[in-house]
Amino acid sequence: MDPNLIQFFKYLYFTSQSKQFKLEVLLIFFNFDIKNIKELHMTANEVMSELKAFGNEQTKKIYISHGAKEPLFGVKVADLKTILKKTKKNHQLSLELYDTGNSDAMYLAGLMADESKITEEHLNDWIKKAYWFYLSEYTVPWVAAETKFGFELGLKWIRSDEERIAAAGWSTLSYYASVHPDDKLDINAYSKLLDQIPTEINAARGRVKYAMNGFIIAMGAYIAELTEKATMIAKKVGSVEVDMNGTSCKVPLASDYLNKIIEKKQIGKKRKTARC
Q1: pLDDT (tens digit, 9 = 90+) per residue, 85-98?
Q2: Helix (H, G, I), strand (E, B), or coil: what is residue 65?
């Protein structure tokens, strides 16, 4: 319970002269506390019931058009965060939800995952099951990037022959740079990765191209020492063409994107968390 709320209950209890009022304060306090304890210990079945209740057919259609498959309910991210407020970070529950194979539950699992407890083995399992880009380029890389071993895992994944996993690797490396201070990053390794992109991006598969383009932006945005180099490479690479599965989504032009960040004087500004 919020410490300020506890202090409020104490104030009500100790300043009142009425025994009846004190009793009512105690009842409200314990009922409130029990409710919060229950929310923090929600079961996977209880979470799935809430997800089903939040399901939206229009959202489901949009997700499917982008690559999602059954089972899913079509839950908006804002509603996922409503559930997350109840569960907070919960390692075991996140593993159970991800294993359901339900896309909404898998996304929520990523938001709920405890980066200090999840293992490389767990994340390798998760990325194998991340069948569409919302999961493979966002959910799993977000969690991986916040772990101590995220950089090494990203390097491993970019060498994969599987498009989803290679794209996840580039995304993980990007998000890792976004949440860790520069003095904790291997700037030289990141610089060499930037050098690879102009010669590799055109031959790469769709989602890998997209993630590589995002990597250029991330290097220029989050590592001030690499901004000039990333900007030069962005101009060299130019427009990146990726099949967006018939949707209206577009690949951002890295050079324009970086120029906007430079104009806003946001270079080097790190994120508090990779997840959103």
Answers
A1: 999 999 999 999 99
A2: helix
Contact 80, 108 (CB under 8 A): yes
Q: Residues near 78 by Cβ (< 8 Å), separated by ≥ 6?
A: none
DSSP state at residue 135: I
**Residue whose pair of structure tokens reads 């229950």 in the numeric block:** 38
Q: Examine the pLDDT at 41 and tell me if it is beyond 80.
A: no
pLDDT in tens, 148-161: 999 999 999 999 99
Count of alpha carbons within 13 Å of 18, Cβ hemisphere only? Answer: 7
Please enumerate in sequence order all residues whose Cβ is within 8 A of that of 230, keeping only pairs 6 or more positions apart, or say none.
Answer: 194, 216, 217, 219, 220, 254, 258
The answer on pLDDT for 62 being more than 80 is yes
Q: Are 134 and 103 in contact (CB under 8 A)?
A: yes
Q: Which helix (H) or strand (E) holds 140?
A: helix 140-145
Q: Which amino acid is at 144?
A: A
